[in-house]
Every structure is written in C-alpha cells, then in structure tokens.
C-alpha cells in the first residue's frame, strides 16, 4: 500500500477530502433547517418570535457532556490508545507521502512500515505528528525491507506506549480496530473482524519486496493507514497495517474490505533488533526455489552449502510440502512461512524425494542484512 501523498501544509485537519465532505453536510443541514422552519410555523410548540414576526421552534437537545464509554467498547479502547498513534510525514528530495505509526517505548521509539520511511532513504525530512497536534522531527533508526518494517526515533520522553498483544492468539471472527491517518486524516478509527490468518501476501517492488504472513481484516484500511496498529478487543496491538487489495486499474487504490497486517510477533522481534543494533535478521531456510514448479509444494532448486537445509540433508529436486503444522502450496508460501519464525528456531520439514515422503528437523538461519 503506497503512502498517501504528502499534504501541502503540515497542520492537522481533515484536508481536501474532509473540506469537501464538511461543506456538503453543512449545505444539507442549512437546507434542512430552512425547510423544517416552513413546516413548523403555526404549530406553536416551544417557539420563539423573530424580528420578522415568524416563529422558530426550539428543539430539545442534550448538553455537551459525552456519555461515559462502556468498558471494552470501541470508544473506551480508542480513548486509551489514540495518544500512542502518530502520523508520519515523509518529504524526500523529489517526492513525499504520509503514513502512520505507533509508540513502542516511552523514550521515543516508534514503529511503522519501511515503505513509509523509504521516501527519505536518499535524504529528506521525517515529521512525526502526535494526537495533540505537536510536530516533532524524526530520524530512522533502522529498517527491514523483507518484513516491511522500520523504527524511527523522536527526541521526546514520557510518551504513552501501546500494549503489544500476541498475534498467535488471533482467531477468525475476532473483533479488531484499525487506527491511522488515511489520506492524511489523522486519528481515523475503523473497526471490523479478523477475516483470515496466515494469508500469503507479497508487496513492494524488486528492491523492496516484502513477504507477509498476514492477518486479513475487513476493517477499512486506505493509503496512509500504513504503519498504524491493528488492535484486538482488549486494545492490544496484534498487527501493523501494511497492505490492501484493490480493484483499481488507474493507480488509485482504496478500501474494498481486504486489508492486511503484519503479525505483531514478527514485528516485535524485528523492532527489538533494530532498536538494539540498527539492523535485524531475516529468517531463511537455506535454499533457492524453482518458481516455475507448477505442482503443489515448493521445489528446491539449489541448497546453500553449509546452510540450514544442507545440514538437515535436503537436496536439489526435493519438494517441500509442509513446514511445522503448515501445508506449503508453492514457493511463495514457503518463504512467508519461514519468515514467520525467528532465526535459530527448529522446525520440522516434510518433503518429497523421488515420490517418497521424508521428514527432517531444520534449524533456521538468516539472510545477510540488507536493511
């Protein structure tokens, strides 16, 4: 999902889309009141006289005190989490855009997508906008293109950090909430359910291709939501909103109820490594795959000498059909499945060799860091 185009001015507010909508609603309200006034003349209920002699009915209205949010309601969760969610404005040398992020630690570390900050990888400025309207310069601590994640840092302390959940606990049908800044409209809240888990998603281009073992949701996600949190019903972060499916054919994308989030369990490890060292490890199984293989499974084209699969006895021509508890449909699914683990994890691999099922224990390794 591409970042939203950068706003012309950095001030908070609804932007061009919000102005159009507000103007239309205002026009409708004015017209409605005028029409109502004509209908109500002469009914004589709670009315006041005007200078022109006509009568305007005074409608009953509650005071400005909002009702208390019910514990566990969307309103109660949002009140707690919204101060931890930020908008990120990236202004590169030739282009700009905006996305979202959220506070990981009170000392200024913020998690977002790599594709949000990649606009300034060759120079430019990052501005982090907090929910109270404060704008603070940010700097990139580190990125991982394979997972589409980045950590940025601002010079502030005492920030309200989110609570991290556990993405392994996510179940299809669970209620979720997405918060972010779609189209620059910061603080936007949408809700839905977990539509699917372990969804195979690839995003990005040749230089920044990411493989996501995604949580799928129907909560509305649009350009600019990238990097924002996906929350469970307890207000804990279970995913980082990263991509959407679109029917667009002219380059314009928008929500069609198919949004995808990076599971927080993977994001947590990557973020911890980036904060500690500025780099992070991408999990690997130590093979290259035959992407032209058409049958079910992932066919091994080459085995990295001395790598995890080589040590476990896999050979070129083997067809990997299962990794842990997960059936493998093709080479892309194997890459996604492998990256849902951490380097050093031991996993059982089922594969076919000359038509016979084989099983091996593989201790996963990592790829050389490329940012």
From TrEMBL:
Q: Name one GO molecular function term.
A: serine-type endopeptidase activity
Residue ranges of the PDZ domain?
Answer: 274-355
Q: Which residues cross the membrane?
A: 15-41
Listed GO biological process terms: proteolysis
Keywords in UniProt for this one? Answer: Hydrolase, Membrane, Protease, Transmembrane, Transmembrane helix
Question: What PROSITE patterns does this protein's entry cite?
Answer: PDZ
SUPFAM superfamilies, A to Z:
PDZ domain-like, Trypsin-like serine proteases
The record's SMART domains line, in alphabetical order, gives: PDZ (SM00228)
Name this protein carries in UniProt: Unannotated protein
Species for this entry: freshwater metagenome
Q: What is the lineage of its organism?
A: unclassified sequences, metagenomes, ecological metagenomes
